[in-house]
Design goal:
By secondary structure, this protein is α+β, with helices and mostly antiparallel strands. The protein is built from 9 helices and 13 strands.
Length: 323
């Protein structure tokens, strides 16, 4: 990827004043739940810069990429996942990819959403119609990818991803994302949270209960789920939280304190793409001798090739196609 640099001094100053991007992967209730909390403020700004998205498009693709980032801790081994949203509404949809190595990339299916009247809120439902959520998991060592799909029910990206997990994966999982703008339209806070129920087997995480501690493994499943859902719903606006210099620990250890949370790992997730000039040169050469000869003879030099996954534009001299 040809990384574009943020040059807005006001945005740079703000980003330097808040918590750095990062993801806290945690368990709670002695392993009955797992989750991750992601500060993706710089992540969404990089996405916006790469794909040159407007306010509305940034809200859609930003939420999609935040959700994709939250899929990374669920991956086992070397895995690549594509999260796609196809709708007959004005937004058309998006395709975003997350890789277990820690990067996310993605694009709008239509990078200018037609708007016929001023926006009254950031509710995206009016821009999504009927359609499908599709998840494709490509796992190293397996010949065929695993593909699952559900209908778009809520016209809300996080809620529809929650519905997908309940229907296709049959796992209780909840997602929440948020993006905050300032008055000039800068993204000043962005992040996401997921929480997932783990199978009730194997016992608590290798320790004995202390006196007075709740035994989550012998608690009624419905009661425990209700309590966790209530805590999840109490989450403040994630975008606003990070914009106002909130940090991840205060949410993980504060919002979920009754469940004795434990952060297992802190990891980086970035908006990035493995594209490069060399790969595009190889792809063009693979078109065949006649087509390559026609390109060399008739197309302008250098060739301009764009990566739709990250917005990078490569200038390829024709000389590189002759060898």
């Amino acid at each position: 990827m040809i990384k574009k640099e943020i040059v807005d001094p006001k945005l740079i100053a703000h980003l330097n004043s808040i918590e750095k991007d990062g993801m806290s992967v945690f368990t709670m209730a002695d392993g009955r739940f797992r989750g991750a909390f992601f500060n993706g403020t710089r992540f969404v700004n990089q996405m916006r810069l790469q794909q040159n998205t407007g306010l509305l498009e940034t809200m859609v693709l930003g939420q999609a990429c935040l959700c994709a980032a939250l899929l990374i801790p669920m991956m086992k081994g070397r895995e690549h996942t594509t999260f796609r949203y196809d709708t007959d509404g004005p937004a058309a949809g998006f395709s975003v990819e997350a890789d277990s190595s820690g990067y996310v990339r993605g694009f709008m299916l239509q990078n200018h959403i037609p708007v016929d009247k001023p926006l009254e809120s950031w509710d995206l439902a009016p821009f999504f119609g009927d359609g499908t959520v599709t998840m494709t998991h490509s796992i190293e060592g397996e010949k065929e990818p695993h593909v699952g799909a559900t209908e778009i029910v809520y016209k809300n990206i996080a809620h529809d991803l929650t519905y997908y997990f309940a229907q296709s994966e049959q796992i209780h999982t909840a997602f929440n994302t948020g993006i905050q703008y300032d008055k000039e339209g800068r993204v000043i806070g962005a992040g996401g949270l997921y929480l997932q129920v783990m199978p009730n087997y194997g016992g608590r995480e290798g320790r004995e209960l202390k006196e007075g501690e709740e035994d989550f493994w012998n608690m009624d499943d419905d009661e425990l789920l209700t309590r966790a859902e209530n805590a999840f719903r109490a989450m403040p606006s994630i975008g606003e939280w990070f914009a106002q210099k909130g940090n991840r620990d205060d949410i993980v250890y504060g919002l979920f304190r009754e469940f004795r949370p434990k952060v297992l790992i802190e990891r980086d997730v970035i908006y990035d793409c493995p594209c490069c000039q060399e790969n595009f040169v190889k792809a063009i050469k693979n078109l065949g001798k006649d087509e390559v000869a026609d390109i060399i003879a008739n197309d302008p030099s250098p060739l301009e090739v764009s990566c739709h996954n990250c917005g990078s534009v490569y200038q390829i001299p024709k000389e590189l196609l002759k060898s």
